[in-house]
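Lecture notes, continued. The same structure-token format from the folding unit now serves as the input rather than the output. Read the line below as a description of shape only.
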């Protein structure tokens, strides 16, 4: 007999302190200069004051923390009203005729990628990742590097491009660091910050060893973002090699270095790893006991339902009743209508996710 497993999350109202995109405020010339200085692509939100979807992105997408965590280290982010100031000139230059138009531009002012219309946070991050791939300068920089050009700027920009494109920069970073007599110069401290791309590396150990000095050069936010990004990259490597040891290493580093974000990282990294390795048993074990701050977060609980749905969709031997912290109710699915209980009160959030399971 076919049943539908309905996962009901009844979660009290919740608010988020948004930590989204930090937009650069400057002229177009200053934006280009900033992009050249930092070696980043430019993300431009092309909007108008009367555009409804533009306002939705400003209210919902841009303030999202995950969006900020991705866009801030990878792009110089700017907003230009296409009907005011430099907007009409930029509109003509990049052929903007609908709003919002999301532009990705290199430091020379060349269009790399263009997307039109409202995007929610996850899709917006994916759009940015695709832009980074299209703006990948590693082939050109690799030729310079292999030809013997090993000055600081060439190696640093090559390493940064490798990191931005998701490729490993560990080899060239180690080669450069090994040739340095003094690692405490401002340039080398900046280099170490960019080089520490994975937490399971000597380069990351150098970052932690010189953390105070690097903070003085680049700021505490830059260091914390690098730690978080490096931990996430090690989680990705853990999935690639199916290594729970690497997962644990990433989680322990976050616990000791970013304790305020530990519970959220532990939850999300477990979901990512066990779903990425198709380990339903490990997933159930990982989410059996959840901290109150996670259970009361509707966004994270929705992630949990989505991951469980995908993981258990073809698993007829598992019972999701073993998951603690959520209310599970198996109900009949009749005539395409959900026949289970309703949310008890409008002040509660109720997220319903369904998927088919068969009894043996």
């Amino acid at each position: 007999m076919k049943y539908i497993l309905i996962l009901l999350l009844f979660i009290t109202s919740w608010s988020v302190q948004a930590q989204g995109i930090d937009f650069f405020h400057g002229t177009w010339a200053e934006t280009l200069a900033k992009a050249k200085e930092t070696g980043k692509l430019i993300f431009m939100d092309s909007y108008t004051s009367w555009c409804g979807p533009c306002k939705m992105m400003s209210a919902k997408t841009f303030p999202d923390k995950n969006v900020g965590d991705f866009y801030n280290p990878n792009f110089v982010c700017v907003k230009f009203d296409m009907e005011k100031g430099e907007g009409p000139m930029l509109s003509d230059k990049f052929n903007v005729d609908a709003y919002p138009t999301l532009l990705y531009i290199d430091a020379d002012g060349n269009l790399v990628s263009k997307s039109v219309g409202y995007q929610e946070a996850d899709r917006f991050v994916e759009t940015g990742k695709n832009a980074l791939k299209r703006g990948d300068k590693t082939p050109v920089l690799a030729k310079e590097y292999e030809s013997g050009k090993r000055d600081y700027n060439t190696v640093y920009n090559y390493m940064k491009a490798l990191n931005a494109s998701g490729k490993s920069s560990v080899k060239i970073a180690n080669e450069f660091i090994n040739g340095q007599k003094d690692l405490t110069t401002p340039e080398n401290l900046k280099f170490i910050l960019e080089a520490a791309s994975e937490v399971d590396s000597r380069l990351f150990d150098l970052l932690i060893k010189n953390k105070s000095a690097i903070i003085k050069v680049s700021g505490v936010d830059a260091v914390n973002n690098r730690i978080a990004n490096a931990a996430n990259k090690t989680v990705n490597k853990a999935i690639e090699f199916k290594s729970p040891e690497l997962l644990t290493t990433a989680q322990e580093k976050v616990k000791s270095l970013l304790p305020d974000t530990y519970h959220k990282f532990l939850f999300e990294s477990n979901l990512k790893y066990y779903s990425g390795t198709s380990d339903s048993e490990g997933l159930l074990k990982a989410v059996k006991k959840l901290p109150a701050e996670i259970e009361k977060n509707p966004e994270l609980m929705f992630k949990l339902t989505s991951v469980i749905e995908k993981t258990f969709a073809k698993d007829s031997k598992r019972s999701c009743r073993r998951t603690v912290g959520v209310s599970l109710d198996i109900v009949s699915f009749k005539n395409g209508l959900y026949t289970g209980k309703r949310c008890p009160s409008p002040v509660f959030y109720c997220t319903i996710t369904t998927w088919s399971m068969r009894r043996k």
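Point for the exam: The beta strands are 2-12, 41-47, 75-81, 101-105, 111-116, 327-331, 333-334, 337-338, 348-358.
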